[in-house]
Each structure stands twice: as C-alpha cells, then as structure tokens.
Amino acid sequence: MTRGTMTAEEFEALATRAVPYVGQLGLRVRRFEPGRVDVELPYCDLLIRPGGTICGPALFALADITLYGVVLSLVGRLELAVTTDLAMHFLSKPPPGDLLGEGRILRLGTRLAVGEVLVRSLGRSEPVAHAVGTYAIPESRDEPPGGRGSRVGEPGGTLEIGRG
Amino acid sequence: MTRGTMTAEEFEALATRAVPYVGQLGLRVRRFEPGRVDVELPYCDLLIRPGGTICGPALFALADITLYGVVLSLVGRLELAVTTDLAMHFLSKPPPGDLLGEGRILRLGTRLAVGEVLVRSLGRSEPVAHAVGTYAIPESRDEPPGGRGSRVGEPGGTLEIGRG
Amino acid sequence: MTRGTMTAEEFEALATRAVPYVGQLGLRVRRFEPGRVDVELPYCDLLIRPGGTICGPALFALADITLYGVVLSLVGRLELAVTTDLAMHFLSKPPPGDLLGEGRILRLGTRLAVGEVLVRSLGRSEPVAHAVGTYAIPESRDEPPGGRGSRVGEPGGTLEIGRG
Amino acid sequence: MTRGTMTAEEFEALATRAVPYVGQLGLRVRRFEPGRVDVELPYCDLLIRPGGTICGPALFALADITLYGVVLSLVGRLELAVTTDLAMHFLSKPPPGDLLGEGRILRLGTRLAVGEVLVRSLGRSEPVAHAVGTYAIPESRDEPPGGRGSRVGEPGGTLEIGRG
Known about the structure:
Four copies of one chain form a homotetramer. By secondary structure, the first copy, chain A, is of the alpha+beta class. The first copy, chain A, has one domain (8-136): Roll (Thiol Ester Dehydrase, Chain A). In chain A, 21% of the residues lie in helices and 34% in strands. Chain A has helices spanning 8-17, 20-23, 56-75; strands at 28-33, 36-41, 48-49, 53-54, 82-90, 99-108, 112-121, 127-136. In chain A, the strands form two sheets. The first copy, chain A, has a six-stranded antiparallel β-sheet with strand order 1-2-6-7-8-5. In chain A, strands 3-4 form a two-stranded antiparallel ribbon. In chain A, strand 7 and strand 8 (127-136) form a beta hairpin. The longest helix of chain A has 20 residues, at 56-75. Chain A starts with 7 loop residues before the first helix and ends in a 28-residue tail after the last strand. Residues 141-164 of chain A have low confidence and may be disordered. Chains A and B meet through helix 2, strand 3, helix 3 and strand 5 of A and helix 2, strand 3, helix 3 and strand 5 of B. Strand 5 of chain A pairs antiparallel with strand 5 of chain B.
C-alpha cells in the first residue's frame, strides 16, 4: 500500500477526534484487520429515544464509522474517502447497553468500495441493525496505475471477503 | 385523527428534547403540514468532518427526524413510531452552513409509512443528500378499523402526495 | 408452523410457475432450509446486456426470489408475502455463466422479515451483487397470538441467524 | 456534449433491443429530456404475480431502465454506464394495467450520477414504487478535463434539477 497502512490506534484517534459529532460517542476500535473492522459504541444517556431504546442516528453513526474503518483498513490513511450511499435496516430496538458494529468489505474497486456492517448488542446474538454502503475513494498521486484493482462494475482483480 | 393532531411547536419540542443525540443539534421545524415537513439544521462546529464539510451522521439525523415529522404530521403523537429502513444517498459535500431537510410522504398505510427527504444547503439549489425510508406505525387502540387506509403493499384507500 | 411447512420442490414450483417474468429464467432451488435458501440462475442469452455481462434486472429477480424463499422457508406457504423494500449493490459485472444467490434471514418479526442475499458467479468467490430487503408478512387467521415473535422494531422473541 | 446527444428513439431502441430480458417488456419512452425521462411499461400477462398484481422484478426493470435513460439523456451514448446501487420501495400493489416510470436526475458528477424514479399506474395518482440509485459513468477519452463537473461527494459545478 503506497500510502502506508493504518493502525487500530490511528483509526480510533481519527474516529474520535476528526468528526466531533461522532467523536463525542467515545467509540472504541475492537478489531482492525484489512477488510474486517469492529467498533464498539459504549452506552451513554445521550443515545436514548422515546421508548427507552437507542436512537437510530447513533446506530447510523456507528455503522458509518465502522464502514469508514473497513475502507481505511484497506486503502490506508485517505481521510477524504466519503460515503456515497448507505442503506440501513433497523432490525430490533436495542435496549440501553453497549453496541458492537461488525464491518467487512464486500468489494474494493479502484474508485468505489462497498461494505456491510451488522450491529449487535454486546453479549447478545440478536442483530440490532444492518447497513450496506459505498465509499468513494479519492485518487492518490502516488498510487501505481491499476494499483488496487478494477472499479466496482468491472470484472478484474479485486479484494473481497466471502461470507462467513 | 383519533389521537389528535400535532403542532409544529409540539414536534419541535419532541425533536429537540426526546432524543438527546439529535436534540443537541438545535433543529428548527420550518414547515409542519400533513405529509410535508421541513426541518432546519443550524450549523455548528460539532458537525464538521475531515475536508471541512458537514459529516454524514448529522445529515442522517436531519433526514431521520424530518421523516419522523412527516409521519407524525399524519398519524398524530405516536412517539413510538420507528424507522425500519432508511436509504441515504450523499450527493455533494456540504460546506459549513445551515441545512434544510424537505420531507414528504410517499405512501401512508395502516402499518407502514414511506417518505423521502431532500437535504439542501440553505440558499442553494444544489441538493446535498437524499433519503427514502420506512416508518413502522404502532397499533393504536382508539383507531377505528381500517382507519388510516390499507397497508403498504395493498391497493386501497391511502394518502399520498404526488411529485411536484 | 400452523400453515404447514414448504419443501424445496414446492418453492421451486412456485418460483418458476407463479411469476411468469421470473419463471422463464428457469431458477433452480439449491438449498431450502429454515432461514437459509440458495437459488441458481442458469445462464441464457436472455440475460445479456451491453458489454457482454448479465443485466441488473435479472440479478434483482434472482435476489428477490431468493429472499422470498428465505421468508417462506420460515413462515410457510404465505404466497402473498410482498417485498416492501430492497436495496441492491452491484459489485462486479458478471460474465456470462450461471449465478447463485445465497440468502439468509437477518430478522423475522410478526409483520416484517428482513433478509440478505449475496450473488456469486458459480465457481468463483468474487461476489457479483448484494441485496438486503424487507418482506411484509400477511396476517394469518390460524396463527396463535404472538406466534412468530415480536415485530421488527421491538425487542422480544425472534429468529435470527448470526453472521457466518 | 462531446459524445453527441441521444434521441428518445435511439434510447427506446437501446432499451428494447440491447437488453433482451428487459426488451421483451416492450417499454415505450414517453419523455426524453436532459435529466427527465419517462418510460411506460405496457401491461402483459408476463408481469403477473400471486395475488393478481404486477411482480416486483418488472417494477425494478422499469425503474432501472428509466434511470439509465436519465443518465444517458445527460451524458450521451455511454452504453457501458452501469448501476452501482438501487434502493427500491414498493408502495402499493399495482393491479394489472400499464405503468409509467418518471425519472429525474438528483446529481450528475464526473464519475457517478444519482437519480430517482417514481412509478405509477397510468391514470392514477397513487404511486406504486420509488427507486433511487447510482450509475457509474465510464471515462471517455474525448471528454475535456473536468468536463461534466465534480464527482459526487465534492462541491463544485454540477447539474441538478430541484424538486418539482
């Protein structure tokens, strides 16, 4: 990777300092491997919604940052990578408690990366939310031509991780 | 509406007090008509992300609350209505500044409501984000049978607002 | 299951006869277990698009029918279950050849079921498309109250299958 | 537009001949203006599903082709433009009859275009389905640098059409 790799600590610092609206959540990076990133959202009163469950925007923030980590774990410190779409399904209302977002890459292309995140309450198997989304990868001067594989939408060399 | 209607002031109070993670954003309800709700997100430093633009989770929070308002503007004070899915597309990186979410109903059924939100920077026509999503409407004891129309997925009496 | 269970043969008959636009594709059910259903789309010239790859609507048809199978594998022969939303991501352009849709449940509630499908070219690990979507489950007279668990969006007894 | 523009007739020929699985539907292009394209799906028995309504994959095919038209109406004859994601919401079960997909651009960038489609039964105002999705635009040698505006995800010169 010509841009250098990123460590879990570097990504946690980025996730908690660079985006204040997300940073105040105190996210903790629990896993940071190429294409596989888990992020924990510790419970706090800020997260509650009517009915006594955790609000949707906090779940979105967790999913979005987890996907950001999945992408940066593969392409290095390209902070300007941006979400272009994210489709969330809310599966069950999470009671107050810590949550874990488990993210993985579905496909890494030259210009676009697609990944998914499953959110669970810590210690319970029942999923709370599912997200799938796309990140646009900014061009990098020091990248060799054809470096990271073909774009999404074209056959060719890509990195992907199969189910299970 | 057997549950009574809701006013813009009541919805703004709900949006800013009941969900603290969203409430700290200081959202202002600019329009609150049945099936048409506009919500403003005033800019503050909490919202910034790398690159100097407004972060995705704040856009999601704005879109989600706007959709919540669209649904409550039609079904009354059913605070326990919950998002079941929300698909967001991020269209352009919004520079620091106030944003407006313009929401409208696409279809109101007995159990599910689908609506969409277009987010713009105030004073600019270029859209910043688009969201479309579903809310599940909790059952209400005092609702007459067949009251709000058929469920999504069945022909029959529904309320919807056409494009434009 | 008060409505009786369904076999792979019964589901394949339903998938190939009841919906002619899909039936002409000659789908084959390769796996039909509760919450886990795989469906094969055999290649034919009907499926081609400019560039010599398989067209998106055929991938959607495969994903939608696979999800339909996932739901019917759990709730029995409720043919009137309908898709309420489906979010597809196209990951790579599949060359001419047979495809396999691997579907699984994410959450089964009383009124809504959410599942996901990963589509691959047979014999290749690279994913071609990902779909996640919701089916609305029609009410059934002979179902005991509270029978299949709580609705999506509420904590409670549900059936779900964890990630791999 | 350096690649030359496209006419409604040329797009209809492309939609009905180049993709046989879609072409057999006999789609008719009813409007073809830059960023605004309407496509009609004439009813035929091929489209039916259990319950006597029109099947989801036919609605997806209509929405996808309408979006394809929206993109080609702006970028010219780039047949290799491909859908990267498409999120559909099914709003009501359409009875047998002709359908109309009304498509419009939300944002046209250099590499990605996002648009939406509302599907109605002809002669009825009630919407049947909503789709929003992204097309990846292949690079073109004869395009001037920076020609079509910035990429989705960056501020800058873009073409977009406001809501109604």
